[in-house]
Design brief:
The complex is a heterodimer of chains A (267) and B (380). Chain A is α/β, with parallel strands linked by helices and 267 residues long. Chain A has one domain (4-213): 3-Layer(aba) Sandwich (Rossmann fold). Chain A is built from 8 helices and 13 strands. Chain A is globular. Helices cover 53% and strands 15% of the residues of chain B. In chain B, helix 1 (7-34) packs parallel to helix 3 (66-79) and helix 6 (231-267) runs parallel beside helix 8 (313-338). Chain B is globular. The chains are: A alpha/beta (267), B alpha+beta (380). The interface between A and B is medium-sized, with 15 and 22 residues.
Chain lengths: 267, 380
Amino acid sequence: MALKIIVCAKQVPDTNEIKIDPIKKTLIREGVPSILNHDDANALEEALKIKDKWPDTHITVVTMGPPQAKDMLIECLAMGADEGVLASDRALGGSDTWATSNAIGAAIKKVGDFDILFAGRQAIDGDTAQVGPQLAEKLGIPQVTYVQEFEIADNKTDITVKRALEDGYELIKIKTPCMLTAIKELNTPRYMSISGIFDAVKKDIPTFNAEFLGVDVDHEVGLEASPTNVFRSFTPAPKGKGEMLEGDTEKEQVDKLLVGLKTKHVI
Amino acid sequence: MNFQLTKEQEFVRKMVREFATNEVEPIAADIDKEHRFPEENVKKMAELGFFGIPFPKEYGGAGGDNLSYAITVEELSRQCGSTGVIVSAHTSLCCWPIFGWGTEEQKQKYLPDLLSGRKLGAFGLTEPNAGTDSKGQQTRAEDKGDHWLINGSKIFITNGGYAETFVVIAVTDKTKGNKGISAFIVEKDFEGFSVGKIEDKMGICASSTAELVFQNMKVPKENLLGGLGDGFKVAMSTLDGGRIGIGVQALGIAQGAFDVTVDYMKARKQFGKRLADMDALRFEMAALATKIEASRLLLYQAASLKDAHLPYGKQSAMAKYFASETAMEVTTKAVQFHGGYGYTRDYPVERMMRDAKITEIYEGTTEAQKLVISGAVFGK
């Protein structure tokens, strides 16, 4: 049985100096160089490692974006993916995460059955980490987020992953089909290969419009249908340096903490 | 006329630039200091397809074009001139003559290993008494009926210490001048082949420049490359393309030195202002930027002519001549604008200056390029 893998990827602006549309409160993408989102590159790399092991594995990269997002798909193909699919339509513009996962979910259904759905943890522009998990919910498959290690058994069904937590990790067993989100610790993405570039540019990359996706443009996708709105985008002020409380016993440390809180009039 | 790169060429530049930044730059200073051939990066470049760019897939190439290959050498050389010339000598001087002059059997036998980078290639023309004057060849190939017997030596052979396949030029009939010279495909495991002295050079210290020694070396009959007496034509046509490879190496070195100098000038303050704010220096940098761009246009034109199967010998000579002199000028000024720091090994510009010098010398000196160009102007 040849494994079928779908990787969700996003083309993102390659800079922190991004400008924000004063009315829509969304990012202005024109004039900013675009790249394959970092975590998504990790997701693709893990899929490619599976393909290295079992060359009959078929990898389809799915993205939603403007027509120029095709360039990112070419990059994914040049790294070794088999196919790229672009969901693109003016009606999809301004989608929030809920609307985006509706559109990408519809695109995935058009691509067909799969065993593993890989996504990056989050995109460096929106930083929401929501689309992957929403997709899993809408497609009705189990999910594990923050995957830092991945192993698949020879039966191509049983998967063991290490899920990163803030202060440790969880070992989770999961079966296909499932959705996994990758973090940068998972692997080091490969480069495009030169012959891969020449093949990739020639490859046909289908564009799925809203009509083909079969989504309701008034209620499921796009800015108007999005239940969340961006009110303001800003660079958060850096947090002050934390203070470590010394003390031989826990009681001593708690005493110091109470004194500190009292002097700052917190309690 | 369209000056836009194709999508393929843009992706090649992006990919090689990433590779050069992540893999080549971090070791460039060390391999120069240690005079160490970067075997680890050669292996990585082989896996990524750097060694067979402008050749068809049927022989294991990437199915790309000469301009993509030129961009690859340029981007590698921006970080490390030695790494650039490893790819350049292999591609232009060994793979190309076998692809351009070889029989179908020779191509099937040698190209897959070369284009995949499993084996590295080199080219043996220069001898102690025959560089630009290739008629002065002393290496002899005798027809022994069922094989050729080659005796002699070659010097200054780029990749010489690490290559496994060589295109070697030797005299087959000394009475016939240029028509008495022939080309051969030689394997390092042939009986009578050995690598002699490894040169200790001023620059491109991480590239292997070696002497090749042939002592009663037996070469199979079928390894004659091109027809008997075609050696001069094989060599000259190979060098026409080789000039593009060295020209883009020079371009890359110049661009690399220029870029680090711009960064330095933005950060370095003297007399209360940044070097980048001093008009005398800004104007010099403007002149250098113009020369770099002119080099690039000449080189890309030559590569594009080659891709279009049009004559390009004059253009490649002009491009190599201009780009190598520009590289020397840019790197010398880069050291100057860095002041005392530029003269130290803590900054890459002194290495770039040493690396740039060879581009005015090998694969045809500047004087040899002027010979080609003036021949095109006045007739030979």
